[in-house]
Amino acid sequence: MKKFTTVLCIMFFASVGAFAQGVSGGIKAGLNLANQTYSSSGYTTSPSFLPALHGGVYLTAMFSEHLGLQPEILYSGQGAKSGDLKLKMAYINVPVLVRYNVNSLLSFHAGPQFGVLASAKDKDSSGSTDAKDQFKSTDVSVAAGIGIDLPMKLNFSFRFVKGLSDIANIDDNTYNVKAKNYALQFSVGYKLFGK
């Protein structure tokens, strides 16, 4: 599954670059304020936000002056916090965003995000336990946000990511428990190539 995802990402990035008028790319990292919504038999609740880090690479492929695509590959910390208990998860996320440049400074982004679960652990004062088997291996989300590109190759972005798929992996789901990820994401990027 991981090899297939890697090959698919490489092919996608290559094809986007081949048809685009202007291609640039770089690295990015930042802070996630991650959380989850839990629902059971019509009742919905959310724990507290869990600060986590993310980082990876991005490619911007403009098809016109204003419109383009921005695919990314990110290693992203996610999860939630409830009192002393922290659920720390890590995903390999691939957002594929439509990018609209208002001008050379400001842009808007929106599109789907596909994630593969890398790890999940419950942590409290007594230690940590593996919780990966409690969650499904993939996650589908939608992301939307804004970006600011500065002349010195630096860029900043703020994004809201909302999970669409139920990630709970419960065999005996008597109470119809469902869980979905969401996060506020703040990023700083540095352009390595392109205009």
How would you describe what is shown here?
It is elongated and about 55 Å long. With 195 residues, the chain is mostly beta strands. It starts with a helix and ends with a strand. It has one domain: Porin, CATH 2.40.160.20. Strands 1-3-4-5-6-8-9-10 form an eight-stranded antiparallel barrel. The model has no long low-confidence stretch (mean pLDDT 90). It contains one helix and ten strands.
Which labels suit this protein?
PorT family protein, OMP/PagP_B-barrel, signal, 195 residues, Porin, Beta-barrel_OMP_2
- Count the helices. How many? 1
Whole-angstrom Rg: 18 Å
- Structural class by sheet pairing and helices: mainly beta
Mean pLDDT: 90
Number of β-strand runs: 10
CATH hierarchy: architecture: Beta Barrel
Protein name: PorT family protein
Pfam family, one: OMP_b-brl_2
Signal peptide: 1-20
Domain Outer membrane protein beta-barrel: 19-168
Q: Secondary-structure blueprint of this entry?
A:
Elements (H helix, E strand, L loop, with lengths): L1 H18 L2 E19 L2 E3 L4 E13 L4 E16 L2 E17 L4 E19 L2 E4 L7 E12 L4 E10 L14 E16 L2
Antiparallel strand pairs: 1-2, 1-3, 1-10, 3-4, 4-5, 5-6, 6-7, 6-8, 8-9, 9-10
